[in-house]
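In the laboratory, one determines a bound structure by crystallizing the protein with its ligand and collecting diffraction data. In a computational setting the workflow is compressed into a single prediction: the sequence and the ligand go in, and a structural description comes out. We illustrate the idea with MU-OXO-diiron.
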Amino acid sequence: MVPEKIEKALNEQITHEGQSSQFYLAMASWADVQGYNGIAQFLFRHSDEERIHMLKLLTFINDRGGFAIVPALKQPPLEFKNIHDIFEQVLKHEILVSTEINKLVELCLQEKDYTTHTFLQWYVNEQIEEEKMASKILDKLKLIGEDKGGLYIFDRDMGAMRT
Ligand code: FEO
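The predicted complex, in structure-token form:
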């Protein structure tokens, strides 16, 4: 059985993952209408991935005898300054999510819930990958700077990039 305190915290994490999915979906839609179709495809996939993160939590809570709550989600921002701004926000957001995951891990240790602790290791590793990916993309964008040709190739490559 999942302890009540942990169940509540896992349900809060469901909201964070769902919110992340909405956030990236809004970025994808913005990029799509600006003509950055490759970047949009990447962000659509990233949004789907966040939904999978949410569903994994949902299944875990229910399988452990709790009740997973499907949360109401806030309207994400709809406008972005540019592509650089988008990936700055992705990195900032992923760092926030990592902080939330770390708090959850800490709570599991306090409550001696080693089952959930083990389950959360997947998220700990995922966060390392997600922060690394956002930071590498930002490095590339810094190299490109204001070069429109560079951005064109970047957009094309992002369409084929795995999230
Ligand atoms: Fe599921 Fe990107 O955190």
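The pocket of MU-OXO-diiron is lined by residues 17, 20, 50, 53, 94, 97, 130 (CB under 6 Å). Keep in mind that any predicted model is a hypothesis to be tested, not a measurement.
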